[in-house]
């Protein structure tokens, strides 16, 4: 058996960072050699996250301030960046120069266009020279490119739940060019671990609300990837996200129109052709509604579909864990691809 790959988590104090720690501490082919956090530097990992006491190397690791040279010295071969957009690039540049591979969970390298990035994120891209190199890393769509990459841009949580059902149908030419409508609901961890009055328990509990309408930042990457799949300049999309009073989970419902002559049987065929060999996509079948309780804490995405003959609408339904398949689980899935590990390594503990 080959030696485990040595990994570091940069920005390990947030929800996605903590989920990365949980997965990597128990991964059979990974050795966690460094964890960083500006706010927790000098503090013991297992004291800040008591759930990890006695798990792997958690009792011996201490948070350090993020520094590329220190991570290289610690022996890290792969660095996971669980940082806010605009900050990840600051660390990706020196890490790449030092020869590490970078798996970025932020939005910094998801878009091909620096102009589009500035439009949606409100500032100039910090490293536009890297955008053409970065791979938008949906494992089920770009496995070969991911295996050869040194800069991985993990998709956002909402985009993962939207893109995986739609991409095979667009590639197969089954959908009309009419606008697509998407309604998504996410648990509160999707907003990150931060002090914010709208995210307090008393504000979230017993309440559901939409937000970032009509231009959520994830629209940029969703539109980019749908256009690539469809082979045209633009796929028109309306996207409305909602915050629901749960810790984690995403439930997405997508409404589209079939092209004349396309059938629900064609939809089924396209989805099965794309995903029957993919271990983390579970196709539930026609008229089957997925449930977030079956995917939270996992790296699975469950997909169902239906056709409303009265309205002439195809309905695609998906659920995932926003910090699992939508973030940290997918990042580890990408590491498995890069390193040639079993695709499910470290990801089937449910």
Helical fraction equals: 25-40%
SSE order, one letter for each helix or strand: EHEHEHEHEHEHEHEHEHEEHEEEH
Number of helices: 11
Counting helices, strands and paired strands, the structural category is alpha/beta
Biggest sheet strand line-up: 3-2-1-4-5-7-6
Which regions are unreliable across 5 or more consecutive residues at pLDDT < 50?
none
Assigned CATH class of the largest domain: Alpha Beta
Q: How many domain regions?
A: 2
- Write down the Rg: 20 Å
Q: What is the CATH T-level topology of the largest domain?
A: Rossmann fold
Number of strands: 14
Most strands sheet: 7 strands, parallel
- Can you name the CATH architecture of the largest domain? 3-Layer(aba) Sandwich
Through-space gap between termini: 25 Å
Strand content: 15-25%
Average predicted confidence as pLDDT: 93
Indicate the topology.
Layout: E1 5-10, H1 15-25, E2 30-36, H2 45-48, E3 63-64, H3 68-73, E4 78-81, H4 88-97, E5 101-104, H5 114-121, E6 135-136, H6 143-147, E7 151-153, H7 157-171, E8 180-186, H8 201-204, E9 209-210, H9 218-230, E10 237-243, E11 250-256, H10 264-275, E12 281-286, E13 301-308, E14 313-320, H11 324-339
Parallel strand pairs: 1-2, 1-4, 2-3, 4-5, 5-7, 6-7, 8-10, 12-13
Antiparallel strand pairs: 8-11, 9-10, 11-14, 13-14
């Amino acid at each position: 058996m080959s030696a485990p790959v040595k990994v570091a988590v940069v920005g390990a104090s947030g929800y996605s960072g903590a989920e990365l720690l949980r997965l990597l501490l128990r991964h059979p082919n990974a050795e966690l050699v460094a964890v960083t956090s500006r706010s927790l530097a000098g503090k013991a990992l297992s004291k800040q996250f008591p759930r990890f006491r006695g798990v792997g190397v958690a009792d011996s690791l201490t948070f350090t301030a993020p520094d590329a040279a220190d991570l290289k010295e610690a022996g890290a071969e792969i660095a996971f960046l669980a940082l806010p957009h605009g900050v990840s690039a600051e660390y990706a540049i020196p890490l790449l120069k030092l020869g590490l591979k970078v798996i970025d969970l932020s939005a910094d390298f998801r878009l091909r266009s620096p102009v589009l990035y500035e439009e949606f994120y409100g500032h100039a891209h910090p490293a536009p020279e890297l955008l053409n190199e970065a791979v938008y890393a949906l494992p089920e769509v770009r496995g070969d490119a991911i295996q050869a990459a040194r800069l991985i841009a993990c998709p956002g949580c909402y985009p993962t739940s939207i893109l995986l059902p739609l991409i095979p149908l667009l590639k197969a030419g089954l959908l009309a060019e009419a606008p697509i409508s998407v309604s998504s609901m996410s648990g509160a961890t999707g907003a990150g671990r931060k002090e914010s009055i709208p995210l307090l328990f008393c504000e979230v509990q017993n309440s559901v609300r939409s937000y970032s309408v009509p231009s959520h930042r994830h629209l940029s990457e969703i539109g980019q990837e749908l256009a690539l799949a469809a082979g045209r300049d633009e796929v028109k999309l309306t996207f409305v996200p909602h915050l629901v009073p749960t810790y984690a989970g995403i439930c997405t419902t997508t409404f589209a129109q079939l092209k004349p002559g396309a059938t629900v049987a064609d939809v089924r065929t396209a989805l099965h052709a794309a995903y029957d060999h993919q271990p983390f996509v579970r196709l539930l079948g026609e008229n089957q509604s997925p449930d977030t309780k079956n995917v939270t804490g996992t790296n699975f995405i469950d997909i169902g579909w239906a056709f409303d003959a009265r309205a002439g609408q195809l309905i695609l339904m998906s659920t995932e864990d926003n910090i699992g398949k939508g973030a940290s689980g997918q990042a580890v899935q990408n590491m498995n691809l890069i390193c040639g590990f079993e695709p499910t390594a470290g990801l089937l503990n449910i």
